[in-house]
């Protein structure tokens, strides 16, 4: 909100008023809740799974692979201590390098998108590039979730919300 609005809210008696300097676009990219028409639009953040397995780069691959199997997932997102995404570990690489650390077999520098990315165009780009998953992060690179193309296609077909 603008400094002017923050000042007016304080005049009206609100005690915890914050001027969010980065602005609305940053809030949308971070996946903050929306209101109005925007809340009905399908985006990467509204469809991405937030319960994706994660690991640190220094973990043994065999331990991470066991967690991936338990979760029924073929992908694990590698994050640092601040939950910033540093890479991806896919099951085929994990199964080959079971005596290694995650860092030795992960795919560094994975492609990421922001939460407010419109779902329709994103899913079409994923299909064209034959990409099955994409990592959804906030503007600081912290993990919000993992979007599977099949989930995006399903959401668009079901049409529960307005597709951009």
Note the run of SSEs as H and E: HHEHEHEEHHEEHEEHE
Sheet with the most strands, sense and barrel status = 4 strands, mixed
Structural class: alpha/beta
Distance between the termini: 25 Å
- Return the CATH topology: CBS-domain
Q: What average pLDDT do the residues reach?
A: 84
Could you please describe the fold and organization of this structure?
This protein is an alpha/beta fold and about 160 residues long. It has helices at about 5-10, 25-30, 45, 60-70, 90-95, 100-105, 120-130, 150-160; strands at about 40, 55, 75-80, 85-90, 105-110, 110-115, 135, 145-150, 160-164. β2, α4 (about 60-70) and β3 (about 75-80) form a beta-alpha-beta unit. α7 packs across α8. The longest helix is centred in the middle third of the chain and has 11 residues, at about 60-70. It starts with a helix and ends with a strand. The mean pLDDT is about 85.
